[in-house]
Design goal:
- By secondary structure, the protein is α/β, with parallel strands linked by helices.
Length: 488
């Protein structure tokens, strides 16, 4: 599935009108017709609807929807925020038609929100500055009302490209997105405001969508599972890949255990762990299949690995620093695929001598770690996750997996969004499990040409899909990382 930015959607709209000779008014009517059917499908007993309309084409969609609702016998209230003299031609025509049907727009007041359904047709995808003043007050009033909200194209205040909020945003129950899937609907805080998503392509020809490059893609889990080479009947533990995981400092043995156990369950033939000496026996007792070693054996273990992971429970002390330095030196001289996560990323950011690019690693930061790596705030990362992942790749190379709501994966050419997952995953140890899974897939596919991007995407999708399966039968807040391992 293709995901587009706001600018790309606007270009698709222009191409449909200018090159494919589809009248803009027809597109507006189609959008309104689709929105009306969405309203009926979700609120079949609604008799009273209030439409909040701006003076752009999004407002025109709302005015056209008001016509369908009126002709269906609904009690229609229309509020226009702005000067009707500013309507563009298509929206003006719809406005004049509505006046001829006997609808007189009213000024906004909280009383108009006493309705069965509120339709948000205020700004659409063209917003480019923080919301304030009267519009901010209206958004607050809508969010405090008891009536459900249908947003046309995108909830007002949500950035259609980044998923960030422009100061404040309407909380929609249902969002009908016109023409295409917009990336901002699936990542960042925007996903908390859209409710259920309905896509209406406005009956535009499929070939139109090849005229404009899309910003990102998302696929289903099966697509990524098929990238992992099938295991031969004659396979043995050596041919199934050796994963080496480095971490587990004092008080953090659980992190490396989760990661290593996940690597086992994800299918690696051999899983070796380098950790604090005191932890080796305990880890082996708890998971006998693990092969655990003290740090003094790291040099001889590195060449044996088909894939290496550094970071789970690594810590930030001298022990951690030395292990990372030793591992990075090896990775500079060899092409072994590696996954860097957690404390390894923090150390990478803190130590200028570690600042190097490596085309053979996967970096898996959460927003806080990404902020450390870019020298900015976590809020800066969340405000524009797309720009953040581009900058991370520019600085560090390889494949970058930026965790969070709408996980993004970028290899320098292709941007993938994982639409799966749920808030129950916001618990310590989830990232450690993901690291183990990706490392395992890299180890298994190292001899069959599995790419870093394929392994990272497979790990992200599989990880999130299992989490979604678990919460179908269990309370969301009871989800723990071990559940993901059990689901592999």
């Amino acid at each position: 599935m293709k995901l587009f930015s706001a600018e790309q959607c606007q270009q698709l709209d222009r191409t449909a009108i200018e090159s494919w000779k589809t009248p803009g008014l027809l597109l507006m009517k189609r959008a309104a017709f689709g929105a009306f059917h969405t309203l009926q499908a979700h609120w079949p007993n609604a008799q009273k609807v209030t439409l909040l309309c701006g003076t752009g084409n999004n407002g025109g969609d709302g005015l056209a929807l008001a016509q369908y609702a009126l002709l269906a016998g609904m009690d229609v209230t229309v509020t226009i925020i702005g000067n009707p003299q500013n309507f563009k031609p298509d929206a003006r025509q719809v406005y004049e038609e509505l006046i001829q049907l006997g609808v007189t727009p009213v000024d906004f007041s909280k009383e108009v929100l006493d309705t069965n359904v509120i339709v948000d047709a205020l700004l659409g995808i063209g917003i480019n500055k923080p919301i304030s003043g009267e519009l901010a007050d209206i958004i607050q009033a809508v969010n405090q009302s008891e009536a459900p909200v249908l947003a046309l194209d995108i909830p007002t205040g949500v950035d259609a490209t980044t998923g960030s909020m422009h100061g404040c945003a309407i909380q929609a129950d249902v969002t009908i997105s016109f023409i295409a899937h917009k990336l901002g609907l699936y990542t960042g805080v925007g996903a908390d405001h859209i409710g259920e998503i309905v896509i209406d392509d406005l009956k535009l020809p499929v070939a139109l969508f090849d005229t404009t490059p899309n910003l990102a893609d998302f696929h289903d889990l099966t697509f990524w599972k098929e990238r992992l080479p099938a295991r031969a009947t004659s396979a043995h533990k050596g041919s199934s890949g050796t994963a080496l995981l480095i971490g587990g400092n004092y008080a953090m043995a659980g992190a490396i255990q989760l990661s290593a156990t996940a690597a086992l369950r994800a299918g690696a033939g051999l899983v070796k762990v380098v950790t604090q000496n005191e932890h080796t026996g305990m880890l082996t007792e708890q998971q006998p299949e693990l092969m655990c070693y003290p740090t003094t054996q790291l040099d001889e273990l590195l060449p044996q690995a088909n894939a290496i992971a550094i970071g789970p429970g690594l810590g930030l002390d001298d022990w951690a620093h030395d292990l990372l330095q030793q591992s990075l030196l090896y990775l500079q001289q060899h092409q072994t695929p590696a996954v860097l996560d957690a404390d390894a990323l923090k150390l990478l950011a803190k130590n200028p001598t570690f600042h190097l690019q490596n085309p053979h690693w996967v970096l898996t930061p959460h927003p806080g770690e990404a902020a450390d790596m870019l020298g900015c705030s976590t809020q800066d990362i969340q405000n524009d996750r797309i720009s953040a992942i581009y900058k991370l790749h520019e600085l560090y190379g390889g494949v970058v997996l930026l965790k969070g709501n709408g996980t993004l994966i970028f290899d320098g050419k292709h941007l993938e969004l994982c639409p799966l997952g749920n808030p129950g995953m916001a618990v310590g140890g989830m990232g450690d499990v993901l690291t183990g899974m990706i490392t395992s897939y890299l180890a298994q596919g190292s001899r069959q040409g599995l790419s870093l991007m394929d392994a990272a995407c497979l790990g992200a999708y599989q990880h999130a899909a299992i989490a979604d399966q678990v919460v179908e039968t269990r309370n969301l807040t009871s989800l723990i990382p071990s559940d993901i391992i059990a689901g592999l």
